[in-house]
């Protein structure tokens, strides 16, 4: 060992270096403790998601809390903070049941789907009409819901898109974010604009015949649950929507119902489970974690807000999330079989 190597070895093992490492580890442990307490608070807050908009947001951010817990657990291993590590593991176990449908999906039928549905929240202010149209056509869906539909986009879709989807029911909106349109390759038996909870927020309820079977399709868009008013508004919308699904089912038990759109709700909130149960919609076993909405274009900054759900008559066999088309949302395309 040459003199320079000897000096470097001695400096690394000097009392000053050892003290620096100890101080660094103590500060890291303190930081990990604070982060774990914060993650424990927001995790336990999800238990009250049905009762307050802030705790509902905590539940919708469940994926983010799990990512944070995995990160601090790795830090606890580095610092050998085993007591803290055990708390982090317990919190991960607390969240685990919500992801069982992702980790242990049901077996799905093989082969191509018998029918395909797509929903796309395109953002009212988005002017990238050619990209929107291209993704709508690429979905190759039988029925497509377009949310935040503006009058200029509606007019743009009267060309090449209308050749593939000649049947439509539209309620565009330029001054807000709740325009909507439903487009189909096959004729509607009926298609009506309807409202859940608010005359300013239109939904489309249609009947179509696919594969020699009649279906009811409901395209809808709820208000974001921000603030007490928005939280209550969205929840009333979902309750009324669920009751409408049940009305259809009681009147015609053999007619499947499909609900699609931006529900402003992730599968990780108990409010979602309550809605699906009340409506009689089958849980989507094997749901993807891929976000359909992004605050920033990275996985930790996204949420699964856009959904295509159906009554148990139908089984989902395919699920795809599209790429950026100028909106904060992505198109969701799903394939189904009877």
TrEMBL record:
It comes from the Bacteria. Keywords: Endonuclease, Exonuclease, Hydrolase, Membrane, Nuclease, Transmembrane, Transmembrane helix. It holds the Pfam family Exo_endo_phos. The chain crosses the membrane at residues 28-49, 61-79, 85-105. GO terms for molecular function: endonuclease activity; exonuclease activity. Residues 118-329 form the Endonuclease/exonuclease/phosphatase domain. This is Endonuclease/Exonuclease/phosphatase family protein.
